[in-house]
């Protein structure tokens, strides 16, 4: 019987050295593990922890949305739209397949296949763009290709789009490829429109999504403010259409039209031609999209400046509306012969006649009565020689040579009287006329009437920059300008013809000579400024046509455009014509067509 | 010779074991360790569950944000399309295609509304409204 106390029959015998070997191997393994653990957990713990944090914890940028720009009626003129951009990771491109891929992409993207192939094979770059901001139709086709090609990546990027193309292009301006405003409203209000970038600092997963269990630091993005412009879309459309038609008809080099609200300074329309499409601004010369001729181009105003000459003299009581000077057509001053545009004299003429006949000789004599001190004080008082302060990028100040300048000559006072030897911007000139229409109050022009950030809106309040002339002087000058306007329809002075039958409108034309290399060349700039209607005017208007090829004086090019525009504006304003203000053969509401 | 004798009475043995149960519930030595391990495990489970729920909600938020982004993109695209359709040159094009023509100045007729009638009916605050010739 076997019991617990019985000795086993077969004893297992293990050699001592085997046991010791196994023991040593086990101990060594444990020592290696402990050493490795110590190395990772103690020696390199800081480095590894930093490396892990760098991989997992990232700062993600939250891009703000650029503000929308609308016109006065709420139509969108500029907005941000997310467009798909195609990028490639060259290191992941199958090089054997690269030529075929380049050919396929070339057909879709419209770029040469060799250029695309060069990008696909450039392994030095980790990430390269193939085409940014794809058209939606192209993007749909590319998406199908991206599904089969892992090296291709689609990224959404904001793109500034101008849905109305070249409509009010110089006024709105453009943004460059980095979404920075470079001209116009986009440039002036870039800080307001662009908003502020936000960030999220957090641990992220492989898809760059923040992991919410770890603490996060979040700085929200602030979208840009939306802007509402003072532009009236119908007025803008009318002036752009009329300007383009006139420039093309008369083969002019360009032109500008501005429509201003005299009471507030709001710019209702601002057009220049030739224009550009801000969606593809890079296809044009820089001077086209960088400069708005309405505020950035200067020129000699010519006879339109006589409005200031007369207003200044009346204001400082240098003469009265009944004062006369002798206009012989030509006059000598400082060994120089100065003459009227046609060298014809008109005998004794009043200030009103200076405007009616556009007499240079009369204007300079009245200006001599005013004197340089008072004259230049009035010039600066009307805002010339300095920027108007309009909220548009690239505004010029113009050039005024006043009597305090070291090289000033007294003949400058004479030539300034009829708008030569002085440089102004179109906006400065129309603002001067607007002040005449606003009882002498000079208003600061502005283009943005409202700024909104979310539901919080800020409206621009009209700002008065001065009162260069009294209301009585302004009223007197307006009467003179009405007579000057009707003179174009009634050169014989019968008093029965109206420039704009049914209405009293004010107008003054001007022919400016063009300076090239310090001397006048043969080219001219024809312009008209005026008010419609003359009393309580709704609009101050400037039409300027540059270098018409078939009009020696330029005036016959600009005047019909002015008439066509005010005819439409008065109808748009629903101001009924007065039948008493129309002569024989004239229809109330139908403009007299000068030059046609 | 040692002999292992066991009493073969299951019910009585169970009764004896039950009476000895409190002895097993006394916390001493290893039982402290087991209790602590159990409590720690419970707390870890609760924490794990909470973390998991938070992570899930975080992903749901991320998904909602993605949806929001897609909707905003769609909104911008629609706004763009609307702006293009509303542009005056496009309207002019469509009007011409429909054989509509701008009113000529001599076609305008002005109707002066008496002051007492203003503010009634049309609400046109201007002096008169142009009417075209029938």
Report, as a whole number of angstroms, the end-to-end distance of chain A: 144 Å
**Helix amount of chain B:** 55-70%
* CATH C-level of the largest domain in chain A: Alpha Beta
Rounded mean pLDDT score of chain B: 78
Number of strands of chain B: 2
Describe this structure in words.
The complex is a heterodimer of chains A (about 600) and B (about 130). Chain A is α+β, with helices and mostly antiparallel strands. Chain A folds into two domains: about 60-95 and about 100-230, Alpha-Beta Complex (Penicillin-binding protein 2a (Domain 2)); about 235-580, 3-Layer(aba) Sandwich (Beta-lactamase), CATH 3.40.710. Chain A has helices at about 15-45, 45-55, 100-110, 115-120, 135-150, 170, 185-190, 190-195, 235-250, 285-290, 295, 305-315, 350-355, 360-370, 370-380, 410-415, 425-435, 470-490, 555-570, and strands at about 55-60, 70, 75-90, 130, 150-160, 200-205, 215-220, 225-230, 255-260, 265-275, 325, 330-335, 335-340, 345-350, 440-445, 450-455, 455-460, 465, 505-515, 520-530, 540-545. In chain A, the strands form six sheets. In chain A, strands 2, 3, 4, 5, 8, 16 and 17 form a seven-stranded mixed beta sheet that branches. Chain A has a five-stranded antiparallel beta sheet with strand order 10-9-21-20-19, with helices on both faces. In chain A, strands 1-6-7 form a three-stranded antiparallel beta sheet. In chain A, a hairpin with a 6-residue loop joins strand 20 (about 520-530) and strand 21. In chain A, helix 12 (about 305-315) packs across helix 15 (about 370-380), helix 12 (about 305-315) packs antiparallel against helix 18 and helix 14 packs across helix 16. The mean pLDDT of chain A is about 90. Chain B has about 130 residues and is mainly alpha-helical. Chain B folds into two domains: about 10-100; about 105-135, no CATH class. Chain B has four helices and two strands. Chain B has helices spanning about 10-20, 20-25, 30-85, 90-95; strands spanning about 110, 130. In chain B, strands 1-2 form a two-stranded antiparallel ribbon. Mean pLDDT of chain B is about 80; it is low at about 120-134. The interface between A and B is medium-sized, with 35 and 35 residues.
């Amino acid at each position: 019987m076997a019991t617990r106390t019985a000795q086993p029959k077969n004893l297992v015998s293990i050699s001592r050295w085997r046991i010791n070997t196994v023991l040593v191997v086990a101990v060594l393994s444990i020592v290696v593990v402990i050493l490795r653990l110590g190395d990772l957990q103690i020696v390199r713990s800081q480095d590894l922890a930093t490396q892990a944090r760098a991989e997992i914890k990232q700062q993600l940028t939250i891009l703000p949305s650029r503000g929308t720009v609308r016109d006065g009626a709420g139509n969108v003129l500029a907005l941000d739209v997310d467009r798909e951009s195609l990028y490639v990771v060259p290191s992941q491109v199958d090089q054997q397949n690269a030529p075929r891929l380049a050919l396929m992409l070339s057909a879709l993207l419209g770029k040469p296949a060799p250029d695309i192939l060069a990008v696909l094979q450039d392994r030095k770059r980790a990430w390269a763009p193939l085409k940014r901001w794809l058209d939606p139709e192209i993007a749909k086709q590319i998406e199908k290709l991206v599904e089969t090609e892992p090296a291709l990546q689609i990224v959404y990027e904001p793109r500034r789009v101008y849905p109305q193309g070249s409509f009010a292009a110089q006024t709105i301006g453009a943004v460059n490829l980095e979404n920075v405003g470079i001209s116009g409203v986009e440039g002036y209000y870039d800080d307001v429109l662009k908003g502020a970038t936000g960030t999220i600092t957090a641990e992220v997963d492989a898809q760059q999504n923040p992991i919410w269990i770890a603490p996060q630091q979040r700085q929200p993005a602030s979208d840009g403010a939306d802007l509402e412009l003072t532009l009236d879309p119908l007025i803008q459309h009318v002036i752009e259409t009329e300007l383009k038609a006139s420039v093309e008809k008369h083969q002019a080099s360009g032109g500008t039209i501005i429509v201003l609200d005299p009471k507030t300074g709001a710019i209702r329309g601002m057009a220049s031609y030739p224009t550009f499409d801000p969606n593809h601004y890079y296809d044009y010369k820089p001077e086209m999209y960088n400069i708005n001729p309405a505020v950035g181009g200067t020129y000699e105003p010519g006879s339109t400046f006589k409005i200031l000459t007369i207003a200044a003299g009346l204001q400082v009581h240098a003469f009265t509306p009944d004062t006369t000077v002798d206009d012989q057509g030509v006059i000598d001053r400082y060994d120089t012969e100065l003459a009227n545009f046609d060298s014809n004299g008109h005998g004794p003429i009043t200030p009103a006649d200076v405007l009616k006949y556009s007499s240079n000789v009369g204007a300079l004599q009245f200006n001599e009565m005013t004197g340089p001190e008072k004259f230049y004080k009035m010039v600066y008082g009307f805002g010339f020689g300095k920027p108007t302060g309009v909220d548009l990028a690239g505004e010029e100040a113009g050039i005024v040579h006043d009597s305090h300048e070291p090289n000033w000559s007294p003949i400058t006072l004479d030539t300034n009287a009829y708008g030569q030897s002085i440089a102004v911007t179109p906006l400065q000139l129309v603002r001067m006329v607007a002040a005449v229409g606003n009882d002498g109050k000079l208003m600061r022009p502005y283009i943005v009437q409202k700024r909104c950030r979310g539901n919080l809106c800020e409206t621009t309040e009209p700002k008065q920059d001065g009162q260069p002339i009294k209301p009585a002087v302004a009223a007197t000058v307006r009467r003179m300008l009405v007579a000057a306007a009707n003179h174009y329809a009634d050169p014989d002075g019968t008093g029965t013809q109206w420039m704009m039958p049914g209405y009293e409108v004010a107008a003054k034309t001007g022919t400016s000579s063009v300076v090239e290399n310090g001397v006048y060349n043969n080219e001219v700039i024809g312009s008209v400024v005026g008010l419609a209607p003359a009393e309580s005017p709704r609009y101050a208007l400037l039409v300027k046509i540059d270098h018409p090829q078939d009009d020696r004086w330029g005036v016959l090019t600009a005047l019909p455009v002015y008439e066509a525009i005010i005819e439409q504006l008065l109808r748009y304003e629903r101001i009924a014509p007065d039948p008493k203000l129309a002569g024989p053969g004239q229809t109330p509401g139908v403009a007299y067509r000068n030059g046609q | 010779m040692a002999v292992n004798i066991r009493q073969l009475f299951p019910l009585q043995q169970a009764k004896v074991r039950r009476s000895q149960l409190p002895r097993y519930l006394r916390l001493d030595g290893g039982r402290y360790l087991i209790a602590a391990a159990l409590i720690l495990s419970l707390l870890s489970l609760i924490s794990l569950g909470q973390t998991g729920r938070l992570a899930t909600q975080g992903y749901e938020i991320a998904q909602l944000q993605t949806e929001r982004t897609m909707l905003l993109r769609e909104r911008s695209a629609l706004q763009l399309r609307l702006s293009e359709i509303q542009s005056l040159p496009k309207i002019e094009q469509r009007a011409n295609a429909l054989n509509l023509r701008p009113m000529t100045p001599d076609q305008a007729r002005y109707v002066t509304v008496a002051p007492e009638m203003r503010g009634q009916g049309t609400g046109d605050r201007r002096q008169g409204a142009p009417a075209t010739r029938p």
